[in-house]
Amino acid sequence: MTDIEREWSEYVQTTAFLSPHTIKSYKNSHNKITEYLEKPISETSVLEIINAVRDLTENPSSQSTLYTAVIVFRKLKNLDNDLIWKEKKALIPAEKVARQITSASKKQYLPTMDILKKHMNSHFYNQDWRGYIICFLLINYNTRNADLDLEFVENLHKTKADKTKNYIVIRKNDFIYIRNSFKTARKYKAKRHTFKSVPFGRAVRYYIAEHPPNTRVYLLNKEGLPVNNNSIANYIKKHTYQGLTEGDYNKCAVSSITEIADYGQLVALGERRGTDVKTLIEYYNIPYNEKLWGGSI
């Protein structure tokens, strides 16, 4: 085992309560930095790390992500991170400007929620049951990619065997959508939503019927097995409107709510997605006004 591999192994031993999404993100960052440095992060000077991050990307958001990983791996060795934190915080204004530019440019071509719903329904009419289910959950529960990595089960008892996974529980009169693994699970804990939908029920029934009897059924699968985490984003985009990302779908939802200044809907969206209202307002640059929106942060 190399020193770089050993550093990653030591980190993995601390990840018992982290989501697969977070671990994957740190793995990607660790790979990028150590491949550039050709040595472990913990054995590299702060100046070398800062220069490496600047060389690896000019995008302020990407730089911030790399610095977050650096802080984690240096912390494992009880190394001082003050200068790294200072460098990361200095990126905040540039990150905000970049988001505003991206948001403004995307707003010109992102579809309305009505168009996204028509696309969802087209999956139903074309009997693309997986596509319909994916779009239904994206639109109604503002999910991220990892939230859609789920298994269909017939009762709640089957969800207790592994409480790190996501499930759709199929009951006689309704469904329960259980999310144990999502980006902000550590903060918001498991999420559970009970809902009824005749079209969704029909889509699920037909989707399951496409699989061999007595086999486990996953929403995202390849030849009956769950899709690799690294492939989930592209897998989902095959079914979304014009290949939009889950983030684009959420921007459409936020834009729709912003147009009518409905604070209650914004709170509900944040609850479903696992994001507080203040973060939504700041991240999406929502022109929030307490009197107009009728709610306080």
Overview of the structural elements:
- This protein has 297 residues and is of the alpha+beta class.
- The chain is 56% helix and 8% strand.
- It contains 15 helices and seven strands.
- The chain has helices at 3-12, 20-37, 46-56, 60-76, 82-89, 92-107, 113-125, 129-141, 185-188, 198-209, 232-237, 246-260, 263-273, 277-283, 290-293, and strands spanning 150-153, 166-170, 175-179, 191-195, 217-218, 221-222, 225-226.
- It has a five-stranded mixed β-sheet, with no helix packed on it.
- The longest helix is centred in the first third of the chain and has 18 residues, at 20-37.
- The model has no long low-confidence stretch (mean pLDDT 88).
Tell me the layout of helices and strands.
Blueprint: H1 3-12, H2 20-37, H3 46-56, H4 60-76, H5 82-89, H6 92-107, H7 113-125, H8 129-141, E1 150-153, E2 166-170, E3 175-179, H9 185-188, E4 191-195, H10 198-209, E5 217-218, E6 221-222, E7 225-226, H11 232-237, H12 246-260, H13 263-273, H14 277-283, H15 290-293
Parallel strand pairs: 1-2
Antiparallel strand pairs: 1-5, 2-3, 3-4, 6-7
Helix pairs in contact: 2-3, 2-4, 3-4, 4-5, 7-8, 8-10, 12-13
